[in-house]
Amino acid sequence: TLHQEAIERLRLERELELAAAVQRELLPTELAELDGYDLAARNQPSRRVGGDVFDVIPVEDGLFLMLGDVAGKGVPAALMAASVQSAVRVLLLSQLPLGELAQLLHAHLIRTTPANKFATVFLAYLHRDGTLEYLSAGHNPVVLTAPGAATELLGATGPPLGLLPVARYG
Question: Does pTM top 0.90 for this prediction?
Answer without folding.
Answer: no
